[in-house]
Amino acid sequence: MNNTLLKYTYWQDEDMWLGYLDEYNDYMTQGQTMDELKENIIDIYKELTNDQIHAVRYHAELVA
Predict the structure, then answer these.
(1) Domain extents for the chain?
(2) CB-based contacts of 38: which residues, under 8 Å, 6+ apart?
(3) Can you give the pTM of this predicted structure?
(4) What's the 3-state SS for the chain?
(5) Whole-angstrom Cα distance, residue 33 to residue 4?
(6) What CA–CA distance (Å, rounded) separates 30 from 62?
(7) For the sheet containing 28-31, what is the strand order?
(8) What's the N-to-C CA distance of the chain in angstroms?
(9) Which of 22, 31, 53, 54 shows the greatest Cβ crowding within 10 Å of its Cβ?
(10) Closest CA to 8 of 54, 52, 50, 31
């Protein structure tokens, strides 16, 4: 990855860290540590942007 800035949302639920990319918030992941969560978020980003996940749902904004 070429220094892509990835914005993500995360939280701790008991002993697990959960999170998702803000741009793809339908694809949540988890990790036992914060570092593992970050690795998993990067892995999901790679899968989403390299056509490894089909029928990707995107989020966008409109001004009417």
Answers:
(1) 1-9+20-52
(2) 31
(3) 0.82
(4) CCCCCCCEEEEEECCEEEEEEHHHCCCEEEECCHHHHHHHHHHHHHHHHCCCCCCCCCCCCCCC
(5) 22
(6) 31
(7) 8-13, 16-21, 28-31
(8) 35
(9) 31
(10) 31
**How far, in Å, CA of 50 to CA of 33, rounded?**
26
Looking up tokens 């070429």 gives 2
Nearest to 1 by CA among 40, 42, 44: 42
Give tens-digit pLDDT for 3-42.
889 999 999 999 999 999 999 999 999 999 999 999 999 9
CA 5, 34, 54 angle in degrees (round to 5)? Answer: 55
CB contact set of 25 (below 8 Å; sequence gap of 6+): 9, 59
Q: What's at 45, amino acid-wise?
A: Y
